[in-house]
Amino acid sequence: MVAIHPVKLNKYRKTITILINIPKGKMKMLLKKPLTKVITASLLTGSILGMGTLSETVVHAASTEAATSHTTNQSAINTLHDIYNAADKGEMPGNVQGLKINNSTKKDVHHKLGDPEKVDNQFDLYGWEMGQPGYGFAYNKDNTISEIRNFGTGVERQTNLGGITPDLLGEQLGLADKILKVPGTDETDYVYKTGNYELHFVIGDNPVIDGFDQTVNHVNLTTGTNKTHLSSGTAAAKYLKHQLKMDNNEDIVFSDMGGDLETDKTGSYYTIKLTSKSMQKKGGTGTVGLYKVYQDGTYKLKN
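Structure (tokenized):
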């Protein structure tokens, strides 16, 4: 693949066109890798610039830098608000929008994004590519999404996560609900509650420059700490026992009947059977109730 780069110089410089011959396979590889160095080449024709010209060049450069900085900052602000607004629905914006915490499954993720590039502990990882952010997905025991992690982009990172600082978070979102230290690292976690979910803006090493620059390393979207999500029949049985204030009752046994997840118009639920041991000893079935316990914590007697 041939990349054509026209370079327009001032009156003391010539306009040239640089042709860089990059093999097609290499071009994709370069786009996927994080930027590590920026090399600027200045091609002069041999004239020595006077002080007046130098001053003009510096002023123009400063003006251009200021305009670029303003644009970059606004892009970072837009990214921040997009993330915050989508989080209220349990989603991340962009090409992963529609994949929802505690609702969409691993199968949904793979259908939308393909197979992960890497699986690291509990996370399916997708690298940044062609200006799209990298993502990680963790799952509950029932294979619904428990956490979405946004790693930002590698190219022009300053227009997204690389442009978000603690000061910008405070200016745009107000004070964080919690500020935590990430154990075993020098990272700081700024936590914002949004609806039933939480956004964790983790300030840490910039993965592009490989250095600590007080910008967001990644953003985690999780279920709020007060939000109930039951991901197994065992958890549902324990939850129901507590809700019915029968934690210390030694007669009634709570059984998840195999722990199968079923669905009705209300949502997904586990069937919990309550059995009395004393009634069984008298020759009866001992069944005292069947409950539907939904994943969000609501429950009702099963007809």
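Residues 1-68 have pLDDT under 50 and may be disordered. Residues 1-33 form one domain.
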